[in-house]
Design the sequence.
């Protein structure tokens, strides 16, 4: 069995390759080829633009792929959603497609844009957005550099943003959120019905989710006397409940847990004050819930 996976080429590419590596699957790309080798003999990859991923998955050229929810909706095609992975080019959160106008614009509501030109890559979603509000606009496909088009080439734009910094740099004001999106693992319906391929795709999604869960978290190990255990547990913000095991000395216990990396700075000194000893912080690759 051979499973062909689509990797989003472009802005999501580097973040996706890093996520696969953390999940345990190295993907070896070549700048001159759209095909990529992997450390799993049963998996081969193709680099495909996220905007086109749903098409090739739905047609069966790919068994599965990673792309944004936005491009699945935009395509109007039917694919199997296997997993949601909240990561983007710069962050772990969702991205937003927003309706934006120049800061100096007199438009303040979507309804104010009746009869106007809207530039965007997300044409179908934008048309549906205005149609649902009974606002008649002209939606034009933008080939890029969408932020620079108002006010000369368009009255407003619908553009994707993570932080809003690019919009602000181009003196644009966000009027409304059109769509929120996150990265998804999607699968071809026929491949999903194949038990062997489905298991492989599910395992892939499991490992990717585990790698996502491990981001920004660290493991923590420590030793504590039984009489001081309650004080230590009162400090720990545990993932669920910490693992507690006995040591060779029956008066001592070992505690193992997972915490947010950002809290370690405050938690470790407090653990020391609570009489914990042998405190070890270690990185995580995967956390499988």
Sequence:
């Amino acid at each position: 069995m051979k499973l062909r996976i689509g990797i989003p080429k472009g802005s999501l590419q580097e973040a996706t390759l890093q996520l696969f590596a953390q999940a345990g699957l190295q993907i070896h790309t070549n700048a001159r080829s759209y095909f990529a080798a992997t450390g799993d003999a049963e998996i081969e990859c193709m680099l495909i633009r996220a905007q086109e991923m749903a098409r090739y998955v739905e047609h069966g050229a790919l068994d599965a792929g990673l792309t944004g929810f936005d491009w699945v909706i935009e395509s109007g095609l039917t694919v199997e959603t296997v997993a949601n992975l909240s990561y983007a080019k710069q962050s772990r959160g969702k991205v937003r497609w927003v309706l934006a106008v120049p800061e100096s614009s007199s438009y303040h509501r979507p309804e104010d844009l009746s009869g106007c030109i809207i530039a965007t890559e997300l044409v179908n979603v934008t048309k549906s957005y205005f149609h649902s509000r009974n606002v008649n606009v002209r939606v034009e496909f933008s080939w890029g550099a969408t932020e620079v088009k108002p006010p000369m080439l368009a009255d407003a734009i619908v553009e994707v943003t993570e932080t809003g910094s690019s919009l602000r740099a181009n003196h644009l004001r966000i009027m409304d959120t059109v769509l929120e999106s996150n990265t998804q693992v999607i699968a071809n319906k026929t491949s999903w019905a194949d038990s062997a391929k489905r298991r492989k795709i599910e395992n892939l999604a499991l490992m990717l989710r585990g790698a996502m869960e491990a981001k920004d978290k660290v493991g923590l190990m420590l030793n504590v006397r039984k009489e001081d255990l309650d004080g230590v547990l009162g400090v720990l913000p545990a993932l669920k409940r910490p693992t507690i095991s006995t040591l060779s000395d029956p008066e001592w216990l070992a505690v193992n847990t997972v915490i947010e990396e950002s809290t370690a700075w405050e938690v470790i000194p407090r653990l020391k004050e609570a009489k914990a000893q042998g405190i070890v912080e270690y990185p995580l690759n995967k956390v499988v819930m």
Summary: Residues 195-214 form the longest helix (20 residues).
